[in-house]
Amino acid sequence: MGINGWAKQARLKGLLYAEIYTSADHVLTFQQIEFRVDNDNSGSLSG
Question: Domains in the chain: how many in total?
Answer without folding.
Answer: 1
